[in-house]
Structures are given as structure tokens and as C-alpha cells.
Write a structure and sequence with these properties.
This protein is an all-alpha fold and about 325 residues long. Helices cover about 75% and strands about 0% of the residues. It comes from Anabaenopsis circularis NIES-21.
Length: about 325
């Protein structure tokens, strides 16, 4: 394999840092900052691997003498491992171990924000490992709640919204006996609603749209004796998301929301108070949304999502033919 420009740039930079007349602590800090550059704007997966290598070098240099820098390097390494594309469980387990070792040191020596950010990312790693029975989803939720002590809606609205979104999704993935299914779904809906008390359309449009879209999904699939009411609420939530998401500025988010809205319309009578009159109008609207979503997903090479929409379009065509 021919070394990339970034590989040779890393080697040159590491050599330059080594020859600097800086103190060891300053050199460790330089390595961490260089790694952060690769981590924040990676052009290739190799950039992320370079970041891991730089963090590891900083970690090694820290030894026992610089515990805070060592913990920061460890958290940086863990954060990079978890965003490597198609990261396998081995990399995620390494990230988990890194957070577990670094967090007690951060809690003692770092700023509250640094601790909260590490807890937020630790929660994500646990959430990713839970489906493989390599972590507990309840521990993931606990890590998010720890981060919320610092990331309040007043001071950090963006992080606050993301944390509540993650908590809700964690609840939805929690395995429970079928008779308790409504409980975890209810907790997810409640989490979205708590966040939406503080995250509004004007000040935080992007986070607002994300929460409304995902609230719609949670409502739509809620186990309930009032499915029509839940679908109506879901459509109201999607409409709120569509106040922000549009085909011009946020095409993929827009396509996602209109296909979700189409799913809800598919199961909704045209006149909820007179379900016996059928849902021909809603089926036609659903078809139109699916066609638009398919076109956007296809154009942006989102082939998996496009394929799901094709399947939904087939189902809707069958229903339309059945009633015409």
C-alpha cells in the first residue's frame, strides 16, 4: 500500500514535535491537537487511524506523570475508534475500555464539560454494544443522564437535544417482555416531549426538527388501543419537522420525514371519526410522498433507503388497486 500524503505529513509532524524545544507536556498537547484535527475533519478512514496513532503516542508519552493529558488522549482515542466506518465490536470494546479507564481521572481533574462530553460518547459506545449483549442499555441511559447534569438546555441546548434523543432511542431498543412494551415506548415518547419543552423552532431549528421527526416515529409505532389518535399526533409531529426540513436545504432529512409521514398516512382513515369511509385520499398522498422520497434517496445514492421506499410504494399500490 502506498503511504498517503497524510501518512507522510503525520511522520514529519511527529518528527518536528520530537525535535521541538518544548516541554514534554507541551509536546503531548501538540500530539493531541494534531489528532483532533484528523478526527474532526477526516477525509478518509486512514485519517481516523492516523488520529488513533497520534492519540496513542500522546498516551504513551504521558506515562504516570501527566494523568490528565493521558486521560484526554485516551478519550480522544476512544472517540475516534467509535467513528471509524463499519467499526466492529472489537474497536467498540476498546473504546469502552478507554472511557472506563479515563472517566475517573477526568472526574477528578478535568472541567465538567470535558467529563460530560466523555460520558455522552461513552453512552453511545454502550448503546452500540448493547445489541451484541456486550453492554447494558440501562448503563447507556445512565451515562446520558450523567452528561445532562452539565449539558442543560439553558447552556448547551444542542447537546441537551442530542442527549434526550439518544435516551429515547435507547429506551426504544431496550428488550422488555411484550406486556411491558408500552412502558419503554411511553418512556421514549416522554423523553422527546421533555426535550421539546425547551428546544424550540426559532432558536434551535435543526434539533427541533430531529426531535419532532423521531417523536413522530415513536408515536406511530406505539402499542396502544388508540392507533388513530397516535397516527394523528405523529403526523402533527412530522409537520413540525417539515417547518425546518425541505428538499432544497436538507434533502435527505426531508426525504426521511416525508417517507415517515407516508407510513403514518398509509394506516390513517381519511375521516378519523368515520373510518368506514376508508383512506383513499391518504393512500394517494402517501404514494406521492414515497415517490418524492425515492427520487431524493436515489439522487443522493442512499440505495438502502431507496430500496425500502420502493417496497413501501409496492404496498401502497396494492392498497390503491384494491379500493379502486
Amino acid at each position: 500500500m502506498t503511504p498517503s500524503i497524510t501518512d507522510s505529513a503525520v511522520k514529519a509532524a511527529v518528527a518536528a514535535i520530537a525535535s521541538e524545544s518544548a516541554t514534554t507536556a507541551e509536546k503531548i498537547q501538540m500530539l493531541i491537537e494534531m489528532a483532533q484535527g484528523f478526527q474532526k475533519k477526516p477525509k478518509t478512514a486512514q485519517d481516523l487511524r492516523n488520529a488513533v496513532g497520534l492519540y496513542y503516542r500522546a498516551y504513551e508519552m504521558s506515562g504516570e506523570e501527566y494523568p490528565l493529558l493521558k486521560a484526554k488522549a485516551q478519550v480522544g482515542m476512544a472517540g475516534t475508534l467509535q467513528i471509524i466506518p463499519h467499526a466492529d465490536t472489537e474497536l467498540l470494546l476498546q473504546a469502552k475500555a478507554g472511557y472506563e479507564e479515563a472517566l475517573p481521572i477526568l472526574q477528578e481533574l478535568a472541567t465538567p464539560e470535558e467529563v460530560a462530553e466523555a460520558q455522552m460518547n461513552f453512552g453511545l459506545v454502550l448503546q452500540s454494544l448493547a445489541p451484541y449483549n456486550l453492554a447494558r442499555i440501562s448503563d447507556s441511559i445512565q451515562a446520558y443522564h450523567e452528561a445532562l447534569r452539565v449539558f442543560t438546555w439553558e447552556d448547551y441546548p444542542q447537546d441537551y437535544a442530542i442527549l434526550y434523543n439518544n435516551i429515547a432511542i435507547a429506551y426504544l431498543s431496550m428488550p422488555m417482555a411484550s406486556e411491558r412494551e408500552y412502558l419503554r415506548q411511553g418512556l421514549a415518547v416522554q423523553s422527546f416531549e421533555v426535550a421539546l419543552k425547551h428546544i424550540n423552532l426559532i432558536d434551535h431549528p435543526r434539533e427541533y426538527a430531529m426531535l419532532q421527526n423521531n417523536l413522530g416515529n415513536a408515536l406511530q409505532y406505539l402499542v396502544s388501543s388508540h392507533p388513530v389518535d397516535n397516527n394523528l399526533k405523529a403526523i402533527a409531529a412530522y409537520n413540525e419537522a417539515l417547518k425546518v426540513r425541505n428538499s432544497r436545504d436538507t434533502p435527505l432529512e426531508y426525504a426521511n420525514t416525508i417517507s415517515n409521514k407516508a407510513n403514518a398516512l398509509f394506516n390513517l382513515p381519511d375521516y378519523p371519526e368515520k373510518p368506514e369511509l376508508g383512506n383513499s385520499k391518504n393512500l394517494l398522498q402517501a404514494r406521492s410522498y414515497y415517490q418524492e422520497a425515492w427520487s431524493i434517496f436515489n439522487e443522493h445514492q442512499q440505495l438502502e433507503q431507496a430500496e425500502l421506499v420502493v417496497q413501501a410504494l409496492k404496498d401502497v399500490e396494492v392498497e390503491i388497486r384494491a379500493i379502486s
